[in-house]
Design a protein that fits this description.
Helices cover 15% and strands 38% of the residues. The longest helix is centred in the middle third of the chain and has 13 residues.
Length: 188
């Protein structure tokens, strides 16, 4: 039987600052965590005074369902202030998610900014299936690099920074063609 999205009131397990203005928010959403796939998202209500929910990509589903939340406005600022035990109203999982083809042996994941969140989830899933993963991350400066300790062991990392302060200097798109030739699938 196909599962459908649900609206839940879930407790916050943790909220950690992992990069400047970026929080790893983990909630106890066990009712839907097993349904969530890499590339899907949830709509999260930001609290009283906020009419619109915010679409936030699922970052992972171990030890709760986690979301990478960058403070870009009042709503995400409110979410970033969530405390352990607070309850969040979420709807999800939404979206189609990513599909790894049955014959794939090597994936290239390409992201910058918050695009890293769903691809980190995909990297975990691929490695569990013994599929190799190369992660190409683009940033403006070294302060914006996704915390590498949040990635599973076994991911081959490549970082491009616009200012050259970390990894290779340039835009992440400058390196896709060269690296894509070694992959069965590319996700961005």
């Amino acid at each position: 039987m196909k599962e459908y999205l649900k609206q839940l009131l879930v407790p916050v397990i943790s909220n950690k600052l992992v990069m400047p203005e970026t929080h790893l928010l983990t909630v106890d959403a066990s009712e839907i965590a097993t349904q969530a796939r890499p590339g899907q998202f949830c709509m999260i209500h930001c609290g009283e005074g906020y009419f619109l929910r915010r679409p936030i990509s699922v970052h992972g589903v171990s030890d709760g369902m986690s979301f990478l939340v960058k403070v870009v406005g009042r709503g995400t600022a409110c979410l970033s202030q969530s405390q352990t035990g607070d309850r969040l109203d979420i709807i999800g999982p939404l979206g189609n998610g990513f599909s790894i083809l049955s014959g794939s042996h090597k994936l290239l994941l390409v992201a910058g900014g918050m695009g890293v969140a769903p691809l980190a989830f995909l990297a975990r899933e691929a490695l569990q299936k013994d599929i190799g993963v190369t992660f190409l991350i683009g940033v403006k400066t070294k302060e914006q690099v996704y915390p590498l300790q949040l990635l599973p062991k076994g991911v081959e990392m490549f970082i491009a920074s616009e200012d050259g302060s970390v990894g290779k200097k340039g835009l992440v798109t400058d390196f896709i063609t060269e690296m894509a030739s070694k992959a069965d699938q590319v996700f961005a």
